[in-house]
Amino acid sequence: MTTGEMAAELVSPPLPASLRETLPGRYYTDPTIFAAEQALIFETGWSCAVLAADIPAPGDFETVQVGRESVIVARGRDGAVRAHLNVCRHRGARICTEDKGTVRRSFQCPYHAWTYGLDGSLVSAPHLREMPDVDRSAFGLHRVHSREWLGYVWLCLADEPPSFEDTVVADVAARLGSPDAIVGYQVADLALGRRISYDVKANWKQIVENFMECYHCGTIHPELTEVLPEFANGLAAQYFVGHGAAFGDEVHGFTVDGSEGLARIPGVGADQDRRYYAITVRPQVFVNLVPDHVVFHRMFPLAADRTHVVCDWLYLPEVVASGADIDRSVELFHRVNQQDFDACERCQLSMDSRSYARGGVLVPSEHHIGEFHDWVRARVG
Ligand code: FES
Ligand code: FE
């Protein structure tokens, strides 16, 4: 068989108008495209970085990856959270190599001991007095825009960030059908009950696309479809915008076996009770809302084929403080996560195949994924 004949075998006929193409396979493997996404998506928009309650006291800090940058997020002595690039202004050494920690009042670069305050200012450097041309005020750490919402610290590396309200808040409102629908879940007042991190060997877009559709629910999520019977028909993703998915009649709570859940969040209205809402906040957050807890995913793309996902299960503080058994509640979405990430990794294996060089197909219940692809293409080109 000649090369030409082989190529001819892999060309598909044009799609009927009712179907849409996916992105071509190389969008999930090409380091050049990944670098463009880092630069033009993750380094220009807002990313959810840190649970504010994880850095409760002055001097507490975490380092996080935003696009290709390492960022120090620290609570100052005034109680405010600030973020700075984790790059020494002297010769560029990475200042903090720890994921998290506590400093008394400053960060000291381990190389030549330039020392920066929690507000990023350069407070001292060896022999500074003998170097009058080194203006301390000119060599503070570079500031990263930050703000808190839903109890998390969100960061933007852009010099002039896009409106947080028009992007992040609007995404949540569009998904819930109203800007106020999230309020009743009191997300910022909830406490961390459990955290599980996942090292997913798949491109970040696989994870977004998977989260956006429920065509797969009947195949890979037996526990979830038991609790949410409407999900078994695969139409959930767009059908339930604005009014959530109802729990099954025999289901008592959003748990792995449908047994009773935990204390209901008081702000959850009667119209939101016994319902499940799933929200994608582009580009790297997924939120699930149920009456007694919130499942909050943050996603950190590390390479074209590797993504770190941190999933928090948040409950009323009194539920967490009481030591109540949250295992059955956590287990449901932990299984969903494992099932989803296994599926993403299964697809990732084929992204370099000649069979997928032109991509695949979005069936009608997945058409909204095409909008996500348009969104990516509009940014990356
Ligand atoms: Fe940090 Fe020299 S590189 S003090
Ligand atoms: Fe799923």
From TrEMBL:
Record bears the keyword Oxidoreductase: yes
Signal peptide segment: none
Molecular function per GO: dioxygenase activity
Entry-linked Gene3D superfamilies: Naphthalene 1,2-dioxygenase Alpha Subunit, Chain A, domain 1 (3.90.380.10), Rieske [2Fe-2S] iron-sulphur domain (2.102.10.10)
Domain Rieske residues, every copy: 48-155
InterPro entries: Rieske_2Fe-2S, Rieske_2Fe-2S_sf, Ring_hydroxy_dOase_asu_C_dom, Rng_hydr_dOase-A
CDD domains: Rieske_RO_Alpha_N
Species of origin: Actinomycetospora chlora
Official protein name in the record: Aromatic ring-hydroxylating dioxygenase subunit alpha
Keywords: 2Fe-2S, Dioxygenase, Iron, Iron-sulfur, Metal-binding, Oxidoreductase
Needed co-factor(s): Fe cation
